[in-house]
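[step 3/7] fold_predict: job queued, chain A
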Amino acid sequence: MVISIGAKTYTCGSVLKTAFTKNANILSTSNRLTEGRRHTSGQRIKSTPVQQCDVVVVGGGIVGLGTACELINRLGTRDSNKLSFVVVEKENKLAAHQSGRNSGVIHAGIYYTPGSLRAKLCVEGMQLMYDYCDKHGIPYKKPGKLIVAVEPHEIPRLDALMERATKNGCKDLQMIPGDKIKEYEPNCKGLKALWSPHTGIIDFGEVTKSYGENFKQSGGAIYTGFEVDKLVLGAEGTPGNVKNRYPVTVVGKNGQLIKCRYVITCGGLHSDKLSEMTGCDRDPRIVPFRGEYLLLKPEKRDLVRTNIYPVPDPSLPFLGVHFTPRMNGDVWLGPNAVLAFRREGYSFSEINLWELGDALKSRGLQKLMLKYWWRGANEFYRSFSMTAQVRQLQRFVPKLQLSDCIRGPAGVRAQALGTDGSLVDDFVFDTGRDGLAERILHVRNAPSPGATSSLAIAKMVVDKAQALFKV
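[step 4/7] structure written:
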């Protein structure tokens, strides 16, 4: 059992953060100014000089790197007032968490409220994602998706979903009667289904790495092993009225320093902590929920060839189990949704007592648990009982047997919670306080389907950054 409490503690505003002992790892050194010696790609730093750049993006996930690419494409190639950019990531690789540990589905925008940002950005983002992959040679597939009603009371909700998706601009959808479902998925059974032919699958970890490569090729620098400890505003001028071009200092936990003009944070599972460093409110709080999958055994993969999803129940906070083909030929079954015992806790044995206690003290989580305690208990039960998990899946594929399945991977979702226990299901942005207010933009919540929408989200983030930073 791995229990992490943290050997050291730092105070940053009202936030206590556990300390780590990773060194910085430079992936690229292009387009940066340094005080001290230069370093080559991939070299470990023992004594880090102070770096300087115009904009630092915190977070090496798909939203952070998508934003970095949009920034450098828009502001780093101008003939005049050209800016320089750096991305910092606390892990030793890109896409270490949500961006590399997800179901890999390119969503079409069916579920989301018409007119909402989630709907608009998903529909736009899906097309941008396919166009990007075609341009850069990133493989994907379009197996489509069936949203299947298996109970009579689900049919009106399915019809409403079709109406909603049509308003969102989803293309080429079809409503399939129960006796025709087998033409799309031979082993699936239901009363009625919605067919989405443009729903795809991809490895979003590879997409994130491609964003990173393109960012570096455009002149950006990426530093891994750089966990942000503080965001500090220095004097913006001197008594002699000499302007300080780089008034913000990004301080790493291992003593790394980057001086810059502006910061954009895309911290995912730690987005609220980064915001608190600059005086922002604690809420909406990020609470980690782990999703655990089963896998079809290799010899049983022919049971499923397309994505099979349930009709969403609006009375429940999460979607429910589904079938997801993968690019490598695997088929994922699930997930459930249980509270993770640390922000990056991919099993019950991974525990951080401070992070767990902090989550349990959250009024939002307490209210959510009280409202859905029975459903939550069932989710925990299905963590330990493959039989219970398979029973849910058999509603859609009756041929599925317990013996066809093995335990699979897990991912952790950064769920923003309101103080009333509601799931925050739209985008939340924030700025620093006092002097940092015009120099820092926090992306506090980029809800699912953030990976599908990443390029569209990046455009929106950079629009907001340009308006805030006046660049």
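[step 5/7] annotate
The longest helix spans residues 117-136.
Residues 105 and 117 are 19 Å apart (CA to CA).
exit 0
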